[in-house]
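The data are quoted verbatim here:
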Amino acid sequence: MSTGAPTRPLTDRIAPLRPAVPVAASAGAAIALLTAITLARRGDEVPIFTTHLIVLLVAAGPAYLLDDRAADVTVVAPRSLLRRRAVIVGKGLLLAAAGWGVVVLLLRWRSPSVPLGALTWETLGLIWMGLAASAVVSRHGISEPGNQVASTLGLVVVGVLIGQHLLPVTVLVITSDGPGRIGWWATATCSAIAIFVLASRQRGHRHGR
């Protein structure tokens, strides 16, 4: 016998909150690491190499936004997959932007020579690359692609940082006065957004039929 209003399923109550946790955790870790390094260096600027690791921490969290433990249930939801993902990604990007804003303030305060514009585009590009990769991986039946994508993203960025001198072009900023490659990252961001949208729409359309 029911004694009150119907209770929402547990998955409905926690689903909107769960994807934001890795984003907040990665942004918080980036801020904590940058703060610790800044204090440890006692006034010296943060090395460029380290700033890329900070960028990677901020960008890795959003790769978990598409994780869905209840994929078998949510797949029959009346809203399209793209619309559901757009809401989740929008909230996650706001968290990531807030975390990156704190990072920018810290860098501007203690490391004024760091190319913040280039690093901001790099962060945005990596975030959308992670989201696009998660969308593609999830189409192959993996409901929680976050771990795979985030770890792969980290390995790729660290690998480029270590072996960039072997590449024909400068992808990541390695010196404060080096080329920022803002145009490259803007193109990569737009391409990743297109892939994300296509992967989400195709899967939603297939299940809808």
Remarks:
- Helices lie at 10-14, 20-41, 48-60, 71-74, 81-110, 116-138, 146-163, 182-208.
- Residues 81-110 form the longest helix (30 residues).
